[in-house]
Specification:
By secondary structure, the protein is of the alpha+beta class. The protein has four domains: 288 residues, no CATH class; 152 residues, Immunoglobulin-like (Sandwich); 96 residues, Immunoglobulin-like; 129 residues, 3-Layer(aba) Sandwich (Glutaredoxin), CATH 3.40.30.10. The chain contains 19 helices and 28 strands. The protein starts with 8 loop residues before the first helix and ends with a helix. Pfam families: DsbD_N, DsbD_TM, Thioredoxin_7.
């Protein structure tokens, strides 16, 4: 795939590891020192579908490799054409696909002395769907590549092969496609006659002409302007500038065009700057364009506005705003529902204690609610920003990626255990002093970090409304995606905001009293139960042997905190020693965790012996099963996903489901996303999902059905035994 969407596996892994290490350190030490003892998934217009069959006849945008001549002389070049013939309603993409999509990639296998040049694309068209601008080809088109044959190549056969990948889409779904193409050429002597294929003349005519003069561009005050030399007496229609470099302009924004004598001035919204030179294609008519390079300089908007369409005839930014508002509403609603998830409740108990201590005091309740909201929104947005940055760097990650790393799980386990022991009264955390009083036990800082912890722990519990909202962040511009992540945080904090700012609710808060200390100790129970859940999750990721070592370090952390608490009873200060000892225990536990190369064979064996046996998910295996005409149920899960585990217990791993699937010969593929898996991450993205769960059913010869995120036995058995079929049988 293109560098814009994918990178090498090693670079992605390095970026992901670095981000995890930074997140581990910041999370543990900030939260442990700041929490007080009292509080201590369809919005994408391009719904992405699974890959089609590898056979050319099954491709939606099939490619054929054609040579302008089968004979080539040493020291000369020959042009190859990738002739793309989209099926009706399907389209392919330009080299820069715009807001969404993927251009073509080429992995050549060439004989010694033969080199392949840069691909040459015809002038593209625009396609704007819900504010998402795509640069596409709807009809047949050809991508040309020149092969240069060295003078030292001897006469004889010249086998050429290439593995090419591209994306085929309709207005509703996208399918990543690939093919391995080959062609046999022959190196002939200098006197041999070389016949040329006349079809290449038309394909070259579709390429943009090179502009002889350099253009000038400038970015100022979030406005991009391009000045292009263009004779005043030449007619143009529907001018549009397709930029090759990503991240410079807002693709979905309208383009204004002025004619100023022998120059065209194009203006649109900027997304970034920092480049000294850009390139692109200026479309000046149907299938007519100019390929140009532009140097950075000062460009003023002058001349007479061009009267006509400058946005491909497909709308304006209003549709993009509608998409953002829909996604934002889903994120707020999804965040609100997260408060009902078991993984979030123990953290909310900290906030409940805080509200109880406030006793209905309006100023205190509002202050703490706003601080709690700030913590939730900051962490949710920060996780979203880190997710977008990792994707941009080439890492294949999704929402809740932080819980795919056992080091994060271990730090969370130590933190939650410490909070549970603190609530139980084993020790108290003193105020932290940095010259001035930075925080108090019952101040807004504690509320902020309680919100931060709630957001961090809540992210694996992606509910039904969040799946679609977070899926929209895959294709929306980064700023809009961050707004959605912030909306998720607002939804999570919304109950406490209502308590703080709605007097009728706030007046029902109980007054502080002796009961509060008992309530605090009771709240230690769900916090310690969360520790038990994290221990189970850690064991699933690293195995029982490594878990035993980790628990030894967790025991050390608990013993150090107990020793610290006993000193508090005696009036002895042990804070500095305890902090250092706990830090060493945490670092030691992390250092001894197994690396990513450790395979958990137990999990594979468990999947094959479950009530509903399954195979590990792989796109190649999915293609094989579909090619054989076998129905397939593919589901994607993770051990840290509460919704996933509930669905498996209630519907997937039930004998009724297993019997129905066995009778219908349904193959079951399970994508386990507990640990990082780039193939699963990319597959989820293709379906507009940023996380799990995802459930798909492939009936033979039909498009996949995306099932609801809350499953029942009837939902699954009806896939192979629909009610109308059972009625016919009776």
């Amino acid at each position: 795939m293109t560098d814009k969407f994918l990178s090498t596996k090693s670079r992605a892994k390095a970026n992901w590891m670095t981000a995890m290490q930074t997140l581990v350190a910041a999370l543990f030490f900030s939260l442990l020192l700041s929490v007080s003892p009292a509080r201590a998934q369809n919005l994408t217009m391009e719904q992405i579908a699974p890959a089609g069959f590898s056979e050319k006849k099954e491709l939606n945008v099939p490619a054929t490799l054609v040579a302008e001549s089968r004979q080539v002389q040493a020291g000369q070049s020959v042009t190859l054409a990738f002739v793309m013939t989209p099926k009706p309603t399907w389209h392919g993409y330009w080299e820069n696909p715009g807001d969404a999509g993927i251009g073509m990639s080429f992995d050549w296998t060439l004989p010694d002395g033969v080199t392949a040049g840069k691909a040459q694309y015809p002038v593209p068209d625009t396609l704007l769907i819900s504010g998402i601008m795509n640069y596409i080809y709807k009809g047949d088109y050809a991508v040309l590549v020149n092969l240069v044959v060295s003078e030292r190549v001897q006469p004889g056969p010249l086998p050429i092969s290439v593995k090419s990948e591209w994306l085929a889409c309709t207005d509703e779904i996208c399918v990543p496609e690939q093919d391995e193409l080959s062609i046999d050429l022959e190196v002939v002597g200098p006197d041999a006659a070389v016949a040329l294929d006349s079809a290449f003349n038309a394909w070259r005519e579709a390429l943009p002409r090179r502009l002889g003069s350099a253009a000038t561009f400038g970015v100022e005050n979030d406005i991009f302007r391009l000045s292009v030399p263009f004779p005043a007496d030449i007619e143009i229609s529907d001018p549009y500038f397709f930029i090759r470099e990503d991240g410079i302009v807002d693709y979905g924004a309208p383009q204004k065009v002025n004619r100023d004598g022998d120059r065209l001035i194009i203006e649109t919204a900027a997304r970034g700057d920092g480049l000294e030179q850009i390139s692109g294609v200026l479309k000046v008519g149907p299938d007519m364009g100019l390929s140009l390079n532009a140097n950075e300089g000062k460009v003023e908007m002058s001349g007479i506005p061009f009267v006509g369409n400058t946005n491909g005839g497909l709308g304006d930014g209003q549709s993009q705003l509608s998409l953002l508002l829909l996604a934002l509403g889903g994120a707020v609603l999804g965040g609100l529902l997260l408060n009902l998830m078991p993984c979030v409740f123990p953290i909310l108990s900290l906030k409940a204690i805080s509200l109880a201590k406030a006793g209905g005091d309006q100023a205190v309740v509002r202050r703490d609610a706003l601080a709690y909201t700030a913590g939730v929104v900051v962490v949710a947005t920060a996780l979203g920003a880190l997710l977008l940055a990792l994707r941009a760097s080439g890492a294949a990650v999704g929402w809740a990626f932080q819980l795919q790393d056992p080091r994060i799980i271990f730090v969370l386990l130590a933190l939650v255990t410490a909070i549970g022991l603190n609530l139980a009264g084993l020790f108290e955390l003193p105020n932290i002093q940095f010259g001035n009083k930075l925080t108090q036990k019952d101040g807004p800082t504690g509320s902020f970090w309680t919100g931060a912890l709630a957001a961090f722990v809540a992210t694996p519990c992606t509910g039904p409304f969040m799946a679609a909202a977070l899926g929209a962040t895959i294709i929306l511009p980064p700023i809009a995606a961050l707004v959605i992540f912030a909306g998720l945080g607002i939804g999570l904090a919304l109950p406490f905001l209502l308590i703080a700012f709605v007097p009728a609710i706030r007046d029902r808060l109980p007054r502080p009293g002796a009961w509060l200390d008992s309530f605090r100790k009771i709240m230690a129970i769900p916090m310690l139960l969360t520790s038990v859940g994290l221990i189970w999750l850690l064991g699933r990721q690293i195995g029982t042997d490594a878990l035993g070592v980790s628990l030894m370090f967790l025991l050390l952390v608990s013993l150090f905190l107990w020793w610290f608490g006993s000193g508090q009873i005696k009036g002895v200060s042990r804070g500095a020693i305890t902090t250092a000892a706990v830090a060493v225990a945490i670092i030691g536990g992390i250092a001894l965790l197994p690396g990513d190369d450790v395979m958990d064979e137990r999990r594979v064996a468990s999947a094959s012996t479950a009530t509903l046996p399954s195979e590990p998910f792989a796109e190649t295996r999915l293609a094989e099963l579909r090619a054989a005409g076998q129905p397939v149920f593919a589901y994607f899960t993770a051990d840290w996903c509460i919704t996933c585990k509930a669905n498996e217990a209630a519907a997937v791993q039930r004998q009724e489901t297993a019997d129905a699937f066995a009778a219908a010969n349904v193959a079951v593929l399970m994508g386990d996303w507990t640990r990082p898996d780039p193939e699963i991450s990319k597959f989820l993205e293709k379906h507009g999902r940023a996380g799990v769960p995802l459930y798909l059913f492939y009936a033979p010869g039909k498009e996949p059905v995306i099932l609801p995120q809350i499953l029942t036995v009837g939902t699954l058995t009806d896939l192979v035994n629909p009610p109308e079929r059972m009625a016919d049988a009776r």
